[in-house]
Design brief:
heterotetramer, A alpha/beta (about 150), B alpha/beta (about 350), C alpha/beta (about 280), D alpha+beta (about 325), A: about 150 residues, alpha/beta, Rossmann fold, four-stranded parallel beta sheet, 4 strands, C: about 280 residues, Elongation Factor Tu (Ef-tu), domain 3, 8 helices, about 30% strand
């Protein structure tokens, strides 16, 4: 109904579970996540996946918007350097992400809440391990209260 | 230091010549404003009116902000046919303004061959608010400069007050590393010695070992005054996007009002779009009617840009815009590993 | 206390029909959920309302139904922007808000007893449909003189309200002329732009009033034609469109000079418009 | 009419008395040392030496974000508003007059605006006459002045020893009567001194010729002046947002989960999007039309529609314009 889906609030504060919005590139990381599923590799169900054509497609506003709408963390994953389906989308993205992470950290958003990584289509295990790590870190940090817009 | 009035005379001669000889159809400079410590941008088209041009320590505006709109591409085929070709434009540039022009040329927003750049070796400009604050309770009725470059103001009761130069120079000038335009067709004034400013630049962006929560609280405090008037964006020569993400409604990325969350989004998005592009002219901070340090986030980003990638926006015409390029060995220590 | 004018009346979409071949114009039939509202919502053709979709905002549309069609409101909406795209995705019985009626209607007192020349183009025919429906109502028809309608579109598929058009063409108390720029094989009516057809029909300006709604280009040339035919500026009625928010003359964006299209318009005579700056 | 006096030592008691009835806004220093009109707290002393506030008090009657309604699960809820009175102490006469101008738009017209009306009805203004106008002030040219009581319920003048007060409306009379025990009759000499002070302030203000301004603007609609004057306009909203009478607004929906908040926010005629149609057509496509609209709206359309200018001469737009645009220049040139 609206242009942005909101990550639903947990039923009660006691039952808080981290919500991680993951932006995965179509060609490597999404396939990697898929592989994790197909291979029945267990990983925390706290991640909501959004498939994007390429990590180079990601506008930092996507990540900020996710945080504003109640995500506790965002994870971006693309192809490993050299493997980009569009040759260099992930390399262009890497510069952006390096600066974005610094900027948000400087602003006061914990660096664990904005994470970047590379996962290839064959790395189901790596994807699961990364998600596990991110969720664990965010669980330690607690719910995100920064930038969240409440009506 | 060459006195401002000498530069002013030469500036007028230069503008008059350029307009008279039809080398330019429009000359952008500064004229006297109605309030002290300020000048107003002047769009000059007649050589005879070149005397309106002024040069003083109050020529703060970055005139590069007007260039993208003067060379705006036609909106459609019909406009392309009917729109007269833009005239060549002469423009007065300080060091910071020149960096902006370089970036605009790199980003193909303005054609170098249509510009006649009149650079002025900039001794630093006065922050009008600092000057007003320094006068305390008194309001200035007029202001000028003495031989040492200090600011002299006549206040309401008729007395003359001298404000020491360092006391009223803009922060951005105290941090400036290239006050003399690195790109110019005509250069006025004697190149000033570049200050040792790295410490100043780093100090202003340093939050030490503050916790994330403290940093966030500090940012929220600073931004809580924001009224979302868009002055910081509109004054920025790099903010030329035809459709700004901050204005988009489909989807609407940033809510319309002054909810602190939306205000913070606004400033984060704006700052990030300046990454590798901000030429540190300070126009955003100067424009803010609420006195917010609008450079707060961008200043830090610029340090990162330089530390991580060794890139200085607007330093050289042959540079490739930072985020339009990449290297296989770009730093990636920030990545999450399992 | 007066009702809060910013609060929309709750309504439901009863039916959504595609109007044109390009499928980007739909007519929505709305009914108020509260019968009291239905009784209180009194309007005349020419007026408009703000439709409201929570989360999407509001947008103004001319009311395409006539008050003689009791029990529902019609709005014909072209899909162009954010709001209209969302509206087009809705089907019965989706709920929707209606704020209005707003603005001034066509000048019904002045229209009484006169011959009417109704000129429309493209999808701006909405409030003209409302006007014609109202005029043709058995209770009203005798109050007006002859009724001449010229309605044009780019192609036959772009003409709206085909059922109504067919019905009107079958009557003898209204003279309906349809024209298209690009006819197809089956087209038997006029070919060409509206102003040319209008001039060919040569309606007399004597005791007549012209009502014109359409795209800017059509308006421009139709006004020239009407002037040629001898219609004085005071006898030409136009309806304008503007970006609006409040609809009640406060938010400051729909003004033309000192007049607000939302409350002083959207219906103006050409004479009134000539006194205003051409900022529309 | 100014006829009462209160020693400064009793001013806090007067404000305390008002605080029992409602919220008191008064001039205090913020953390940066700037005098602002803010909710009064006991630990911050009232300041009476200031020119004017950076922000006009319009946000108190026309908030920058005003929730119009919320949609939740198919229901519509209107926001609850408190009925507590709001006392604005120390507002300058120009800003008090601005409230009258806003009343013309939001209350007096054919459609009154319930959100504005509700907030406005609670507001009582205790204006403080200006003694030290700034060089950007031109209130005397728009029918106001340093001692203008229009829009004020009570007008106050600060003398060296005392504050003089006078009720200007029935509401002001009621206010003063509820603090009558703190007031004494102002001696004639003090009233004379106050009048002299106001006259002296008036003399400091440079006039702008606004004779027949509505007609002059009508005649100058197609003047090349608009193009040249607007060339340097950056298209920001500083002038509008700081203006005490600018009131144009936007209405947008904020969405979060199943909740929608329809909110009215300040908007500005200098923005290209202000009048942009969904079709892409824009009736005011360039800075020229938009800058002209701003001036016309304030000095011509408002005069025609409300018989009241939408400018009080506070000079905020002049002082704060990033490119030093000065509307006085245009007003002087137009039709001259």
């Amino acid at each position: 109904m609206s242009q942005t889906q909101t990550v639903q609030e947990s039923a009660s504060p006691g039952a808080w579970e981290p919500k991680v919005v993951a932006f995965l590139c179509n060609w490597c990381s999404y396939a990697g996540a898929d592989l994790a599923g197909v291979s029945r590799i267990q990983y925390p169900p706290n991640v909501r996946i959004i498939r994007v054509p390429c990590s180079g497609r990601i506008n930092p506003a996507f990540l900020l918007r996710a945080l504003q709408n109640g995500a506790d963390a965002v994870l971006v994953s693309g192809c490993h350097p050299g493997d980009c389906h569009y040759i260099s989308g992930n390399l262009a993205a890497r510069r952006k992400f390096a600066l974005l992470k610094d900027l948000l950290q400087y602003a006061g958003i914990e660096s664990e809440r904005v994470q970047f990584t590379w996962v290839s289509a064959s790395e189901g295990g790596r994807f699961a391990a990364i998600v596990e790590k991110v969720v664990e870190q965010v669980r330690k940090l607690g719910p995100n209260r920064k930038l969240v817009k409440s009506l | 230091m060459i006195a401002s009035h000498q530069i002013e005379t030469r500036l007028r001669e230069a503008a008059e010549g350029l307009l008279r000889d039809k080398k330019v159809g429009l000359f952008l400079g500064y004229e006297k404003a109605s309030l002290p410590f300020r000048t107003a941008p002047l769009f000059l088209t007649e050589a005879e009116k070149a005397k309106r041009l002024v040069w003083s320590p109050f020529c703060t505006a970055n005139l590069a902000v007007y260039l993208p709109r003067l060379f705006k591409a036609p909106a459609d085929a019909r406009e392309a046919k009917t729109m007269p070709p833009p005239p060549a434009v002469g423009v007065v540039l300080k060091g910071c303004d020149a960096r902006s022009v370089i970036t605009l040329i790199q980003e193909r927003q303005v054609p170098r061959e249509k510009l006649v750049l009149v650079g002025v070796a900039c001794p630093g400009m006065v922050d009008a608010r600092k000057a007003e604050r320094a006068l305390g309770d008194q309001e200035a009725l007029g202001a000028g400069e003495d031989a040492q470059g200090n600011v002299r103001a006549v206040v309401e009761d008729g007395t003359e007050v001298t404000l020491r130069r360092e006391q009223v120079l803009a922060d951005v000038c105290l941090e400036c590393r290239s006050p003399t335009p690195s790109i110019h067709d005509i250069l006025l004034g004697a190149p000033a010695e570049a200050r040792e400013t790295d410490a100043a630049r780093r100090r202003t962006a340093d939050l030490g070992s503050e916790t994330a929560d403290r940093r966030w609280a500090r940012l929220q405090q600073a931004l809580s005054k924001c009224i979302r008037c868009n002055a910081c964006r509109q004054a920025c020569p790099m903010c030329y996007c035809k459709d700004c993400l901050l204005d988009q409604t489909r989807p609407r990325w940033v809510g319309a009002g002054t909810d602190i969350s939306d205000v913070t989004m606004y400033h984060l998005v704006r700052a990030f779009h300046m990454a590798g592009r901000c030429t540190e002219c300070g126009a955003c901070a100067r424009a803010c009617p609420m006195g917010i340090d609008a450079r707060l986030l961008v200043r830090k980003l610029n340090l990162e840009v330089e530390d991580l990638f060794g890139y200085r926006p607007g330093a050289a015409l042959d540079g490739v815009p930072l985020l339009s390029a990449f290297a296989m060995d770009d730093p990636q220590e920030f990545l999450t590993e399992p | 206390m007066a009702r809060n004018p910013y609060l929309p009346y709750p309504a439901r979409i009863e039916e959504a029909t595609v109007e044109n071949a390009a499928r980007d114009i739909k007519t929505f039939r709305l009914a108020f959920t509260d019968p009291d509202t239905a009784a209180a919502f009194r309007y005349m053709p020419g007026q408009f309302a703000e439709l409201s979709l929570p989360g999407m905002g509001e947008a103004p549309f001319g009311i395409a139904s006539s008050p003689t069609e009791a029990g529902y409101l019609l709005f014909s909406v072209k899909r162009v922007g954010l709001f209209t795209a969302e509206l087009h995705s809705l089907e019965a019985p989706a709920s929707i808000g209606v704020r209005g009626p707003m603005g001034k209607p066509f000048p019904w007192e002045r229209m009484a007893g006169r011959n009417l020349v109704i000129v429309g183009g493209g999808f701006a025919f909405t409030t003209l449909r409302a006007a014609i429906k109202c005029i043709l109502d058995p209770a009203n028809r005798s109050r007006f003189g002859s009724v001449l309608v010229v309605y044009g579109a780019r192609t036959p598929g772009e003409l709206m309200y085909k059922k109504d058009l067919a019905e009107w063409q079958a009557r003898n108390d209204i003279d309906v002329h349809l024209t298209v720029d690009e006819p197809d094989a089956t087209w038997t009516r006029h070919k060409g732009v509206v102003p040319t057809v209008l001039e060919g029909l040569n309606p007399s300006p004597e005791n007549a009033l012209a009502i014109v709604c359409g795209p800017p280009v059509m308006i421009r040339f139709t006004l020239l034609s009407l002037a040629k035919l001898g219609f004085p500026d005071g006898a030409i009625v136009l309806s304008l469109e503007m970006r609006m928010k409040c609809g009640i003359g406060k938010c400051g964006r729909c003004n033309i000079g000192g007049k607000y299209v939302c409350k002083d318009g959207p219906v103006f005579t050409r004479e009134e418009l000539k006194a205003l700056p051409a900022e529309y | 009419m100014i006829d009462k006096r209160i020693p400064y030592t009793d001013l806090d008691r007067l404000l305390d008395r008002l605080a029992k009835r409602g919220a008191v806004y008064a001039p205090i220093k913020d953390e940066a040392g700037e005098v602002v009109l803010a909710a009064r707290t006991h630990d911050q002393p009232i300041v009476l030496e200031y020119r004017n506030f950076r922000l006009s008090p319009k946000a108190l009657v026309l908030p920058q974000n005003q929730t119009l309604m919320c949609f939740k699960n198919g229901d519509v809820e209107e926001p609850a508003l408190s009925d507590r009175e709001t006392f604005l102490f120390g507002v300058r006469p120009c800003d008090a007059r601005a409230m009258l101008a806003l009343d013309k738009v939001f209350i007096d017209g054919d459609q009154h605006d319930p959100y504005y009306a509700r907030l406005r009805a609670k507001v009582a203004v205790i204006a403080l006459a200006c003694t030290r106008p700034t060089s950007s002030c031109f209130c005397t040219s728009v029918g106001s002045g340093p001692g203008d009581a229009a829009g004020a319920d009570v007008l106050a003048v600060a003398l060296d020893a005392d504050l003089l007060l006078g009720a200007e409306t029935p509401r002001g009379q009621e206010l003063l009567s509820c603090v009558a025990d703190l007031l004494t009759d102002a001696p004639g000499a003090a009233v004379k001194e106050a009048e002299g002070q106001i006259r002296a302030a008036e003399d400091q203000i440079a006039p702008v010729n606004l004779q027949n301004i509505a007609r002059r603007l009508r005649d100058a609609y197609d003047s090349p002046l608009w193009e040249t004057a607007s060339l340097k306009c950056l298209g920001c909203g500083t002038c509008s947002y700081l203006c005490p009478t600018c009131h144009c607004f936007d209405i947008t929906d904020d969405v979060r989960g199943g909740t929608v908040r329809r909110v009215r926010t300040w908007d500005c005629c200098a923005y290209p999007l202000f009048t942009l149609h969904a079709s892409g057509h824009n009736p005011r496509p360039t800075a020229k039309e938009r800058w002209r609209q701003r001036i016309m709206h304030k000095f011509r359309y408002a005069a025609e529609n409300y018989n009241h200018l939408l400018c009080v001469g506070c000079g905020r737009c002049i002082r704060n314009c990033p490119v030093s645009m000065d509307l006085r220049t245009v007003l002087k040139e137009v039709g001259a």
